Amino acid sequence: MTVGDVHVAGRRFGLGASAFAAFLWGFSGIFAVLTSAPGPVLTFYRLWIGAALLLIISYASGRRMTWATLRASWPGGVLLGGEMILFFSAVKLTSVVDVTVIGAAQPVLVLIAAHFLFGERIGKWNVVWILLAVVGVTITVLGPGIASHRQFTGDLLAVGSLLFWSAYWLVTEHSRKMHEAIEYTTGVTMTAALSVTLLVVVSRQPLSDVKSTDWLWFSLLAIVPGSGHLVMNWAHRYVDASISSAISCLSPLVAAVAALIILGQRLTVVQAGGVLLGLVAIAVLVA
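-> structure tokens emitted (287 positions)
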């Protein structure tokens, strides 16, 4: 097998891994809605459970955390912690579909930033399919309109989550090329947990006011979407930030279907059309 063959194989696995990670992330909002804890408290427990699991995996596989990895992971950790608090707080105020598909604007932000920061080049047809994917998920969220002040506040928090998520994506794309996926993801999660802990303590969040059933959802959040972070961080080495970001549009589409089945949050005909458009655009882009 030639070097070129290895590169092509790695890129194919990277594309598949990106899609799988986006699928796992689609359940983040679902699990969050099923908990009784507010956004900051939910984020606190999700991150510390995730950090503990990743440390166990790292040490069981013979890997060790280094100061170099921790130094490289702290910017991403702070951004991820902020993104999670905003995201989980948003799904408590508005629908899961609204929050997740607002993140559909991320590929556009990442595409522009990656061009200037990393010199990534992308063909004009890829731009067209990225924009169509964004249009599809945007139709999904705007189809029924804005119904209340509570929903409007949730949507604003979702916009803030989008900005943090885009910045995290770019930071991780840069740092991941110099560090292994497991060590880097562990460092990011630990740093995110520490930053969220500081915020929770300062704001005096009710950490003890959780129900026994919440621990199941905290754990599932750490395992299912948390695994998505590990998988995507591995894929970053093989896939450009602009492309993997576009593939992440699969996440809100998964969330829309899961919200319908699990939470009973129905879609209008217009929203269903947006889901279909987004899926087709992502499939063509990946191909």
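The chain has a mean pLDDT of 84.
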